[in-house]
Specification:
This protein has one domain: Rossmann fold (3-Layer(aba) Sandwich), CATH 3.40.50.720. A 7-stranded parallel β-sheet has the order 3-2-1-4-5-6-7, with helices on both faces. Helix content is 47%, strand content 15%. Helix 4 packs parallel to helix 6. It is α/β, with parallel strands linked by helices and 249 residues long. Helix 2 links the parallel strand 2 and strand 3. The model has no long low-confidence stretch (mean pLDDT 96).
Length: 249
């Protein structure tokens, strides 16, 4: 079982997909894993917790709207009160609401920006003071290849993911002197619930853009995230690691 010497890891969007893969990767080192999600029910989160239990990890989950500043502040106060520190924050929560700009309503734009980008501000703001105090910590923000190259019908999503890159670089400069690293990982086309709803035609079009000739797996992203939080990456901050099979070079 995990103990007080284990790292405390908070993962937003942690109940499934990339978030679940990241949680299980940290579970391999017996970290204390806190999943944050906003699913309609607890089924996906419970599945992830069950898999963590099989690794001997005592994880926990919280259903919280990470786009709410107040809700996030309350959650992180609770976590810090219980665990006394947070060593790793992975900002992974994200949604898509795809449509052409000319058809995009303000509510569609705002919802994606709030969940994908404002949540990164909310969670980082809530954790950074404690990391500064302990003079160490790792923050990894999940961006997207779309944030670098754009994509048809995804101006809101691309803007949010590009914003994450700029945010990560700026915060990295602010906290580097306190031993805190801040980096971004930009996945390409990855097999998740978010991409499963796409048509076979769209999936085939994406595959044609991938030089390595295969779709990414959540574990591919988790490996990069975990490495950025390891001692081997202690001299890396303010960077964007593209894990896209070569979609972006």
């Amino acid at each position: 079982m995990t103990n007080r010497d284990s790292r405390v890891v908070v993962i937003t969007g942690g109940s499934k997909g990339i978030g679940r893969a990241v949680a299980l990767k940290f579970g391999e080192e017996q970290a204390r894993v806190i999943l944050v999600h906003y699913d309609p029910d607890e089924s996906a989160a419970n599945e992830t917790l069950d898999e963590l239990t099989q690794l001997g990890v005592g994880g926990e989950s919280h259903k919280v709207d990470v786009s709410s500043f107040e809700a996030v502040e309350g959650l992180f106060k609770e976590i810090l009160s219980k665990f006394e520190r947070i060593d790793v924050l992975v900002n992974n929560a994200g949604i898509t609401r795809d449509t052409l700009l000319m058809r995009m309503g303000e509510d569609v734009w705002d919802s994606v920006i709030k969940v994908n980008l404002k949540s990164v501000f909310n969670c980082t703001h809530a954790v950074v003071k404690s990391m500064v105090k302990q003079r160490k910590g790792n923050i990894v923000n999940i961006s997207s290849v779309v944030g670098a190259i754009g994509n048809f019908g995804q101006s809101n999503y691309a803007a949010s993911k590009a914003g994450i890159i700029g945010f990560s670089k700026s915060v990295a400069k602010e906290v580097a002197g306190r031993g805190i690293t801040v980096n971004a990982v930009a996945p390409g086309f990855v097999e998740t619930d978010m991409t499963a709803v796409l048509s076979e035609k769209v999936k085939a079009a994406f595959l044609e853009q991938i030089p390595l000739g295969r779709v990414g797996k959540p574990k591919d992203i988790a490996e990069a995230v975990y490495w950025l939080c390891s001692k081997g990456a202690s001299y890396i901050t303010g960077q964007v690691i593209h894990v896209s099979g070569g979609m972006y070079m």
